[in-house]
Amino acid sequence: MLNQHQSPEIGSRKKNAIIFFIILIGVLYITRLFFLQVLDHRYKIYAESNIQRIITDYAARGLIYDRNGELIVYNEPYYDLMVVPGQVGAMDTTEFTRLLGITRPQFESRLQTARSYSRFKSSVFEKQISKDIFAALQEKLFKYPGFFVQPRTLRKYPYPVAAHTFGYVGEAGPTDIAADPYYQPGDYIGISGIEKHYEEILRGQKGTRIVMVDALNRDIGSFQDGRYDTIALAGTDIYASLDIELQQYGEQLLKNKRGSIVAIEPSSGEILALVSSPGYDPNLLVGRVRSQNYRKLQEDTLKPLFNRALMASYPPGSVFKVANFLIGLQEGGITTHSRYSCPGYYYSGGITVRCRSHPQPVNVETALQYSCNTFSCIQFRNTLELPKFQSMQEALNTWRDHIVSMGFGITFNSDLSHELPGQIGSSDYYDQIYGPRGWKALTVISLAIGQGEIGTTPVQLANLAATVANRGYYITPHVIKAIGTPENLNPEFIEPRYTSIDSIHFETIARAMFETVESGTGRYSRIPDITMGGKTGTVQNPHGENHSAFIAFAPFENPKIAVSVIVENAGGGATWAAPISSLMIEKYINREINRTWFEKRILDAEF
Questions:
Q1: How many domains would you assign to the chain?
Q2: In the prediction, which pLDDT does 300 show?
Q3: DSSP-derived secondary structure letter, 607
Q4: Is 252 in the same domain as 217?
Q5: Residue 593: is its pLDDT beyond 70?
Q6: Which residues form the domain of 170?
Q7: 252 domain-assigned
Q8: Residues 296-345: pLDDT tens digits?
Q9: Do 463 and 319 fall within a single domain?
Q10: Does the predicted model carry a pTM greater than 0.90?
Q11: Could you please report the per-residue DSSP string of 542-596?
């Protein structure tokens, strides 16, 4: 009953205040519940993590086969031990650390690191546990709440060769994760070589499983019958252009030597063998020992991590006469009828370039056959001093443009890892040293014999041999032949790249290279039943013994293989590089070696 002295207005205010208070309490409760259930996931995660576990199913990386279908890279199962710090309770740490082969301080440190990441989300406690450790741990895992095993795979190389070509796989770093949302901490990614270039093809697609666990941390089945699971999709298989048998043989030939072998199929640009010596077993950079082994390889004074086939830059020596003679023929500095006598040296303006004894006079074919330095210097100077060039700068840049069209001074921008361009000087380079009017053809005469301000890589030299084999063009050198199936050829590298030299001149040089092997400087490396064209080179080395160089292609009429060989500090090209080239060619074409005495000399040699 209302107080007769209380006005209706006061009663209404009290009523409104009570209603407001009730509404305020309701809003506060709703806000708190919204914060706990929607904005703050800690309690939800904590609750769910006690009954659910989210497991990433990592996709198996695509397999790698050689050009003949031989499996050369596959996957082997390993396991990561994961931890959810918020679930870790009382446990026998002595037994646990003994099983893993770690110390108590390491256990405490890793657990603290995991806690700093998240108390309620899983993270890696121990990477890449072997099958044996996993088997021992699995039986007792129920005794260690908060720990579970995450299946993974690691690469396995059944052939301990071609490490530089394969590259290796490692854990994705912060830069990788920032660049691609696919990667999360703990994921693996291709770091170098084929593994890096074809990462998106090889990696596949990760899957996710949600499993229920009991109070003892044991898997008791999938959550809602796997309704929210996603399937991992394996990576795509790829087919390397390598002939693994030839690759193995090349690495045997260069054992205890420093140098490289590059073999290319001229018609396709497919690399058949890519040897850098000394090398290393690719299995050394797999698993838990990768970092430790990488440091050892880095500290090795023989530099096994350095890929000489793609990164070493050498003056090519007399091998480069092949390119110079082609330019001389194209520009008119010489013709097929040009003939010169050789007194055993070239002399002009106080500069002497020595030559060896050989039949004379020489023309373009016999000059290449016997590697005449005198003819090389005359034709090079004739070409640069042609009246059609208005200046020495124009002449040298024209020469350089021809050289670049043959694949020198550039990278091929293919799937070759860490390839370097070498060095081909331009007129600007010499202008900076001597001034625009301070140099002439004689100043750069050393280029005539592949010395001086020039650097070429072994893969570029092999490509020159392939270009001559094709009579004027090359397909970009590459190491992956097909993707998915052997018939699905790699579409990146199929277009021919024509040089600026007419094919008729290549025919002349190819014939000269044939005579070089038949009766010239490379005659001791003839293969009885295989016709071959080649060119020897002795690369002057100011730091010690000269390097031995040779390029070749075979068979002469229908080339199947082009090769370059560099053997450091080995002397003349005919002595070591040429025999190695001929053995590689014999092995590839005949699949066996008949000249066992010839082979033994190479296998036993050390430099």
A1: 2
A2: 96
A3: -
A4: no
A5: yes
A6: 52-240
A7: yes
A8: 999 999 999 999 999 999 999 999 999 999 999 999 999 999 999 999 99
A9: yes
A10: no
A11: TTSSPEEEEEEEESSSS--EEEEEEETT---TTTTHHHHHHHHHHHHHHSS-S-H
